C-alpha cells in the first residue's frame, strides 16, 4: 500500500517514477488532472490545478488510452495499429515523466 498525500492508503497504485513503468501496468489520469480540447489552441490539453499543458498529437493519443483498463503493452499495440512504428521505450518514458509529476497513476496489472 502506498500512502497518498492526504495520509490515507491506496492499494496497488503507484505514483512515483522510481518504480518504473511495466507493460502490465494500467495507467490512468490522476483525479486532479483532466484532458480536454482547447478551441483556442486547436489541441488537446491537460488541465491541472495550477498548470495547463499543451499536448502534441502522440502525447494526446497515449493519454486518450490511459483509462485504467488498457495496459501499457495494449496502448503500444493500439498505437502501433494506428501508426507505422511506436517505440515501446518512448511510450514508457513519456508515462514515467507524467507519473513523476503525479499527473498519471499506475494500477498494477
UniProtKB/TrEMBL annotation:
Name of the featured protein: Pyrroloquinoline quinone biosynthesis peptide chaperone PqqD
Primary gene name: pqqD
Pfam families the UniProt entry points to: PqqD
Keyword check for Metal-binding: no
Keywords: PQQ biosynthesis
Residue span of region Disordered: 1-25
Keyword check for Plastid: no
Composition skew (Low complexity), residue ranges: 1-15
Pathway: Cofactor biosynthesis; pyrroloquinoline quinone biosynthesis
Subunit architecture: Monomer. Interacts with PqqE.
Annotated InterPro entries: PQQD, PqqD_bac, PqqD_sf
Amino acid at each position: 500500500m502506498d500512502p497518498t498525500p492526504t495520509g490515507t492508503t491506496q492499494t496497488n497504485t503507484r505514483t512515483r517514477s522510481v518504480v518504473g513503468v511495466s507493460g502490465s501496468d494500467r495507467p490512468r489520469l490522476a483525479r486532479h488532472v483532466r484532458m480536454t480540447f482547447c478551441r483556442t489552441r486547436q489541441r488537446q490539453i491537460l488541465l491541472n490545478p495550477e498548470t495547463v499543458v499543451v499536448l502534441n498529437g502522440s502525447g494526446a493519443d497515449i493519454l486518450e488510452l490511459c483509462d485504467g483498463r488498457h495496459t501499457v503493452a495494449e496502448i503500444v499495440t493500439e498505437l502501433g495499429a494506428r501508426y507505422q512504428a511506436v517505440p515501446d521505450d518512448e511510450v514508457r518514458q513519456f508515462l514515467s515523466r507524467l507519473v513523476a509529476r503525479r499527473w498519471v497513476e499506475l494500477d498494477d496489472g
